[in-house]
Amino acid sequence: MFRKYRKKSPWILHYNAGSCNGCDIEILAALAPKYDLERFGVINTGNPKQSDIFLVTGPVTFRSRERLVELYTQMPEPKVVIALGSCTCTGGVFRDMYNVEDGIDRYIPVDVYVPGCAASPELLIDGVVKALEILEEKTKAIEKPFRLFKEASSENGIINRRHSALKVGEKDEED
Amino acid sequence: MIEVMLILFAPLIGGLMYGFERVLRARMQNRKGPPLLQPFYDMYKLLDKQAFIINPYHTVLGIMHFLTLWTVVAFMIFGQNLLYIIFLHLLSVIFIILAGFSVNSVYSHVGANRELLSALAYEPILIIVAVGFFMMHGSFDISVIRQNSASIVPLFLLFLAFLLLIPLKLKKSPFDAAEAHQEIVGGVEIEFSGVYFEFIYIAKWLEYVFVYLLLVLFAGNNAVLGTVLFLGVFLLVNLVDNATARIKMKHVIQIVLGIALTLGLLNLAGLSYV
Ligand code: SF4
What we know:
Strand content of chain B: under 5%
Structural class of chain A: alpha/beta
Largest interface: A-B, 24 and 31 residues
Structural class of chain B: mainly alpha
Largest sheet of chain A: 5 strands, parallel
Radius of gyration of chain A: 16 Å
Distance between the termini of chain B: 40 Å
Distance between the termini of chain A: 44 Å
Number of helices of chain B: 10
Bound molecules: iron/sulfur cluster
Number of helices of chain A: 5
Shape of chain B: globular
Oligomer: heterodimer
Number of strands of chain B: 0
Order of helices and strands of chain A: HEHEEHEHEHEE
Number of strands of chain A: 7
């Protein structure tokens, strides 16, 4: 019944998972007078418990991954996740660095990928519009983030942790 | 009958005021701004969200805050005793402060602390305003104040003191340290979510109704002056909100207690000589 109002008041939580700040400046540009995202009812709340859209920038550094998952689990359903910027989608220029996790979709389910380094405000607005379409379809069923990666394995000299991924709630044999 | 209708629709009126304010603020910043009914869209959306309950007391205190505030507005519309209304309003503020302290979040504690400090700053002034009305009209009853002619000229200093309170009460710049969205993420309201945040959100609208109802008391039975006062002050408060930066809580208290209390007491002293 209230489903159609989801589209009209998307509140955004922005989290910087170790980005270079290029994309964050573009977000500010989108909120500023020229593009004025607030005319669609968008508010940048900064509070996970009251937001609908999780807007992440940055390739997820080793230190920021726990906060990323924590913020994600603190957001009430229904919610959508937008990965903003190339490095958030795939690791971008930071790919395969020793302290970087190559994109947020290894930890949390992502709904919209917005490419570009830095992604332009127009692309961001397109991404938000797409995300709103998805948000309207969503139910209150809980989506689970992935468990934090544990051991790093090395493969052809490249260290990564993606083989030890588990969903939260999945049985962990080693514990 | 009309009073009952007004009371029932008080939150809606507050919501419209809030929506209009957001448009106005956007226009002042050369933006287009959200639609006028945006607060109601937000409200419907919040109904459909999952809600987290941190602990039962926190939630119940939040709802109590909303209900008391609505009662305050109802008493104002019915024209009851002003002093009683001010204390009942203090009770509603205490509920939200207790809610802020009842959870473990640091931001919530800081917010509740600041809320308490700001209550300390504005409460004496509200009481002095009530005393000023009593000295003018010989009664604390709002219905009596509304029947008499406008008292803004003899109470002009008190009116200025009250103007200083409005940004503090509505959490606007430069006195918005209690809410401070960019540093403590809303203060006391941070742990509310879903439908329970709704109560806090609507309580904010009721706060608008409360403050502006107090303001038009200065106009007495003069409806035109009342409208002019309301519109003028509404514009002024938003202009100041857009043009100033947030100041520290310490300075808020110094400014409000220093300037507004002095102005108010001067006004009272002047009244008692006349
Ligand atoms: S996509 Fe490029 S500009 Fe954006 S945060 Fe990553 S590295 Fe910076």
